Amino acid sequence: MYKEANYWTHLESTQGHWHPEFVRQLANQEGAETEDGRAAVITFQDGAKPSARTFSKSRELRRYIDESTLPSSPGEPACRRAFVLEGLPKAFIEVLGSSLCVPPSFFSEHWAHPGQFMSISMAHPPRQYNGGSRFSFYFPRLHWVKIGEGSSNQRDLMYIMPSSINMLLARVNLFGEFRGPFRSDEKLSCWILLLVDPPLKTSVIGVVSSQHQQVEALAVDYQSFEDGDLQSISKGAAGQDGSWYLPIPAADDKQKPQMKSMFDDIINLYPFRQNQSISNPMTITDICRQLVLSAWTARLRFMEVEIIRKQSQMSIAPSMFATSYHDWLDASWTRPWKSRDFGGLMDQIAEAWESEAWETLRDTLQTLKKKVNIMSEAYMQAASVRESIAANKQAQHVGYLTSLATLFVPMSFIAAVFSMGGDYAAGQKSFHVFWAISVPVGAMAFCAFFFGASMLKSMHTASLLLGPQIRYALNELAKIDAELKTLAKKISGQ
């Protein structure tokens, strides 16, 4: 306990200036809040698969560490350990920090998310911030949940999850307003200790309304989408199922990562990793590297969803302005991967599965770039077609106005003739003759201009149908006429 008190004093004095909110948040933790988290230790031995042990109380973790520091018995196999901490509860920080000599800045930098929470879309790519011997990976993540109704009708876009870390959540507008999942920015920090963010809890607090609302977890298939095939494609592309992890035996299929709790996923994945020598302590980071690949895979899928959305908008509705999709994609996340992004934990990619995974991601990225180029070319052609369609519609409207004007021309001409004077002028006793003449003439003009083509076509069709019958009747009449003439000659000769 004395070591832990000294560690807290050291953390408070060194981090109070650089991360005052983090120190204040730890100092305000009381009672159960200091234990709001979990810790685990993963043991590695030669010739055996890793084993994991989870601790829900700091005193259990303290007892385990104290027992581990005792001299080992002769013949006991050598082992290495990696610790995992969920959240930043004060009691666990004091135990792990004082026992493992963890720099206080490692905890404070994990709590403070770099940058601003700028948007509610999946616009930010995974990023790495720490160098040297520490590694910090910052990436967006989805939570498929349903938000309970609050006491007010106000709907929040931003929420806060009550926990020991600074976690903001936002409604994702990728699938339509207020219909998408939650999005949070989470972190994975690695030293000899892995720091992971806690999973989404059962309640959140609205940033604007300050109301507590219940959260109900949903399966991805439960989501309702209104736009048919487009949203189905988006749902499939946005799924985080195809993560980069080692194959799980069929008998243990239930141990697959659920992509809900990073802590549980790490604990479940390590027992299935291949046996490796403990001579290189950095080999324990392979699961972390798989999580990095998983985050980049999810990022690529969301970029694909955005491309599908923009392609759909371009095909079914006119765009308000032209966009250089290629530049937009290139500036968004196509940054070359560098070995220093692992913070010195690995000098180069040495395993075949990892190299193949990055090659696959790069090939997929090139495919998306080609698709964006095709979309850009199609957009220019579609814009020209839309302009032609708009011009044709305007000309058609002008034609309708012209045809409508021709309806009143005969009436105007007849009215001008009758208005010259006499009994047919306006207001005279024979003015009704104007209506008797102009209305039929106007009706004929209306039919001629609006139905003339169809009437001519009908007359032509009727002539084609009646033509043979008319010719037959004419021939019969000609025969009768010839017979009558012959009969008349005979009568005159007698």
TrEMBL record:
| Gene3D superfamilies, A to Z | Magnesium transport protein CorA, transmembrane region
Task: Report the membrane topology from the UniProt record.
Answer: Multi-pass membrane protein
**GO function terms (MF aspect):** metal ion transmembrane transporter activity
Q: Name one GO cellular component term.
A: membrane
Which UniProt keyword terms apply here?
Membrane, Transmembrane, Transmembrane helix
Q: Where can this protein be found? A: Membrane
Q: Where are the transmembrane segments?
A: 398-421, 433-456
Q: Which residues form a coiled coil?
A: none
Give the protein's recorded name: Uncharacterized protein
| Source organism of the structure | Fusarium sarcochroum
